[in-house]
Amino acid sequence: MNKCLLIVDDDASVISVLKYAFDNKGYDIITAEDGEAAYKVIKEEKPDVIILDVLMPKKDGFTLLKELRSESELKDTPIIIASAVYRNYSIIQKTIKELGATDYFTKPFDLKRLVERVLQLCPVEREQEEEEEPVLNKKVSRYLFSDNVPDSYEFKIIPACKVIAGFFMKKRTGVLLVSSKSIVKKIALLEGVPLQASSNIASEWLGRMLVRDNVITHEQYKETLGIMTRSNKKHGAVLIDNNLLTPHDLYKYLQKQLYEKIVNTFTWTNGAYTFTTKIKIKDTTQKHINPLVLVYNGIKNKVGIDFIKAELDEIKPDSVFEIKNINALLEATVFSGRELRFIRSFNGNTKLSDIIEQSKLGDDAYSLLYTLLLVNSFDLVDPYSHSIKEMSKASRYTVKKSEHLSPYDLKIIKRITKLYDNLSKLSYYELLGIKRDADSSDIKKSYFKLAKEFHPDKFSEGKFEEVRERASKIFAEVAKAYQTISNDGLRKEYDESFFDKEKNTQLQKANEIVAAEMQFQKGSVYLNSKDYVKALDAFTWSIKLNPDEAEYHLYYAITIFKDPKIDPVEARVEAKEILERVISMNPNLDLAHYYLASIHKLEKKPDLAKKHFHKAYTLNPKNYEAERELRLMSMRKEKEQKGFFKSLFK
Asked: What is the pTM of this model?
């Protein structure tokens, strides 16, 4: 029987990495996103081992750990803290001793070491793992014409080069998390363009790369690494400070580092990826990289030619393609003269086999053709009518002729097509063909039947070319349904989310309101300490999470008005517009009237300024700044009147 592992973390990407890392290790994995939810799960599921984050909403990890250790039935349960709160060794050891944590891993943690520690604390029987293949040189996927790359999948089905190309085509913004055994990388995408990437592989660190390229020596690397640790600066900044790199050189090598971190994943045959939009992406404008160049060079330099030829093998040699948007394509990237001639060969008149034969690119012709297919740079020309066909329907015209289909084969294809078309509409119970009160025996029986029916290996023959990808997606969804419904905790969560959407929506809204308030409190602290950048970011999030709260908009406007780095005229215009909107949302906020009055004062509109200062003081008699402004305006008016009467008697 499998052991139960509970992962508690409010970062969805961390949960995804850990779930993948412990996949097939012999654990039933359950998760929670905050301390309160974790406590309920622990009481219900009685996990055998727990991985616990510290900084979480509702209840932090330290508080939860204290509560768990105070209960006799949980005092011996292995609990591993995984957090970035403390890094000092003595403090970590003190935390373990005083709070009762079994172990402490600092983020970013060594995934392999964490897995080994969990296995040591809570041993399970598991099968021997296969070693990862060093190079992607054999066929694993032939879905050139799929409409969408899913947000999560395995690389043995969808290779990394296709994932990057697919997200580029769809202009996706978010964080792509890729992992394989102990390797973890995060790639930030802004409208499909890679901006930055983090990696836990030492060989991909900037300093290591510069030593490898003979830009700096080992001694210089060691020395600057020490300075970086002591000064808490980034390595690039230290290298510039010590005249080992110019800012231009740093930009160039950061781009190269970003490229290498991404294309090195093109060799992975094991592992998986997941994409999240929950993490905010900021345009750093520093390390932009052309996705098309990245995909092409990565395929050319990293992906085995046998794999590429196997991918392209499904296309008929007499297919006729026409390159589309050629000017945009040529402007967006840099190709050699031979590569440009190859691209222009796809003129809508020449067969694919002739273009390949006449090309002088050698094996690079296959790499470039594969890249252009992945980024949908072709229109397909029907050789009979010479009309343009959609690439998403290209298999009808390009795929080699299927074997003769029997009535049984046609029945299978019809079932796959019908089920695929309704996949998004079916509940997990409907997909598995079971009732909502089905027991574990019925669930397992149904799952094995469907898994056998839709396993991708069954559809590798040419006659099922048209529906193979659909069968693979059905198989993945069936597996997901089984994993969810067969776990009591996950099943309960699913039932609540799927069958009681209104309740789930209300719960989500409540969570967002709490999160918005937390961001607002954080922003208020930053504002008081005059850290306007962080304050603005926090108030932006509070507005995003709860846009109906006028006070959040108010403090956003105040931050803009006070920030000395923002042009004063632009700040007044934007703040004034927001404050007027705030007052229309909630006219009883005295600070909204006070700051609007302050802007009117700067605009030399004394009547409007006085009106809003007076309103602010009326709403809050303790608004002494508004009271002071009113007193000064009154004194100024009296002085002006005295001067006027005095002039009459001269």
From this structure: 0.46
